[in-house]
# Entry
Amino acid sequence: MATNRSGAEDPARTLALLWGTTTTAGRRGPRPALSTAQVAMAAIELADAEGVEAVTMRRVAQVLGLSPMALYTYVPGKAELLDLMVDTVYARMPRSMPADDGWRARAAAVADDNRALCRAHPWMAAVSTSRPPLGPGLMAKYEYELQALDSTGLDDVELNAALTHLLGFVQTFARMAADERAVQQDSAMSDKQWWAGNAELLARVFDPERYPTAARVGAAAGEAHSGAYSPARAYEFGLGRVLDGLAALIEKRTH
# Structure
C-alpha cells in the first residue's frame, strides 16, 4: 500500500491551492517572495533526485532558503504539497502525436506519455491517486486522454473504464520498473550481471527434469532478453494485449 497518497486532506483547501483561488486579502507583512509554482518545482526536483520520502516541509524549505514556518505560508502542509506536486507534473506531461489518427495509435500514445512521465518522475509510481487532486493539470490530462478514445463508439461509462484500464496497466508497469531500478541500485549489478554471477549456484539446485517447462521457457526467455526479464518487451507485449482487449469491446459495441 502506498504511504503517500493524494487527496489526503481538506479538499476545499487543496482545490483553492491548486486553482489559485486562495485569497491573500487582509494579509499583513511583505509580499511573498516565491510562487506556489516555484515551491512545487523545488519539491519535484527533490523527489526526482532522492525519492518522495525525502520530501518534507523542512527539506523543501532548506532548498528554497526559507524557514520551515515560512514555507507554511505557501502550502498548508505535506499532503497539500504532494497534491501540488502531482498536479504540476500532470500539467507538464508531454502530449505525443500518434503515428496515425486511429484510436489504437492514440491510445498507445497516451500509454507512452504516461510511461514517460513515470520514467521522468519515478516517485509517481509510489503515490496513490485513488483520490486524485482535481487541479488544472489533472483536468487537462484527463481531457486529452479521453479525447484519444472518444471516437471508439463506447458510451461514457465504458470510455472512462477503458481509460482507467489502460492507465492501470501503465501504473503497474511503472511500479515494476521502479522496483527493478531499486534492485539494480542496491546490488550494483544489472539483471544480466546478476543472473550470470549466480548461474552456477542456480544450476546446483535447479532440476530441469523436475521442472521441464520452466527450464525450457526460462532458457528461451533468457536467450531472447539477455536476462530473465525485459521491461521494454514486457511493456510492448502488455500494451498490445490491453489494446486487443479494448478492440474486442469496441468491435462488440459498434457491430
